[in-house]
Every structure is written in structure tokens, then in C-alpha cells.
Amino acid sequence: MSAINAKASRKMEKYAVLTREPRCFLGSLAFSWEQRKLTEFVEFFSGLTYTPNDVQENGTLVLRSSNVSNGEVVDADNIYVNPQVVNSENVKVGDIVVVVRNGSRSLIGKHAQIKAFMPNTVIGAFMTGIRSECPEFTNALLNTSRFEEEIAMNMGATINQITGYMFSKMEFKVPCLDEQKKIGEYFEKLDNLITLHQRKPFLMKWRTSDANRNQTNRLVL
Question: pTM of this prediction?
Fold first, then answer.
């Protein structure tokens, strides 16, 4: 695990480079970076408002803050609603879902990228969806401390919420699309590597338990 921790540490250093020292760190490319408003290179879509009467055992999955954990979309406290009441668009691969309103201030800005096809799935009203031409880069950008700083600067002192207007005021230094793709691919691979190593202890524990069960079965037989 020490090796992956070192990779994670280097990853965070690269994130710092990404926002505070905008220069290409992949190969010898030398594209220019420029200050741009977030709304200039991403699009937003809103979530579904529903009532308790719309909730049912099966139907359309509504992604909420509980479904976002450690940068991944997870099954947790899932809510399903009647498909007939759904008037918002289905999430697509590459979309980034962001928590924009929550009772806990620390959850504001928590986000995850949709990495697989999810039919009959929308986001809830307290979420915002983000689409961009290079979602991997945008997701990496939202993982930076710069995004946290933008949230702190634009969010009110008493209301735990990011509005569309607040998003429109956020600015970041970004490179051209070619470099965005290269940076996005780099962080996507690193994220996948970290996720793989995080799952290893669970897989080892599961295999050990499974082996113990098999051994017990043999003894019983």
C-alpha cells in the first residue's frame, strides 16, 4: 500500500500544479493556459423534484448525495420513483454529478463521474449535472483545492448551497482541448489504479473467508 500512497501523494501534487502552476507536465508539449469561467467550457443540467408519493420499490433511480462516495457512484440508500413523474434527462457516460445542496456543509461539492451506462437514472433536485467535451479533465479539475476555494468564496455563510449563479462566477486556468484530454487520461488511469488498490484488502478478505468456508465444508463432509 505504501507504493499506492506515494502515487496518491504525487497525484495531489500534480493537482496543485494543475491549478496553481498551469503548465504541461506530460511530455514536452507546451500549450498555453488561460483563465476561463467554468460556464465557458461545461454545460449544466438540473435534477428531478419528486414527492414521497412518487417513491416506489422499483422504477427510475434518483442519484443523491448518498450515492456519491470517494469520487464514485455507489449503491447506498437508493431511492426509486415512478418513471411517469420523471421530467429530467437521464445521466450519460461522462457526466459529472455534483452535490449542490445538503444539510452538511462538508458535502457541498462532492462529486462523481458516471463511468458506465446507467439506464433509468436521473439526479435529484439537490444535485447538479455537468457535461463537458473532456469530462476526465473536468472531473480532475473538480478534485483540486481550487474548486474548494471557489465554493468557499461563492457559497453563503448560512445556506449550504451552490446555485447556478455561483457556478457562473467560478474561474479556472485551463489549457487547450488537446492538453485537457492528455491530462484527463492521465488522472483517469491514476484514479483507476488507486481504486484497484483500495479494493485489494476487501478482495483478499473475501477470498480468505471463502477459503475458510470451503475448508469448513470439507471438514463437515
Answer: 0.76
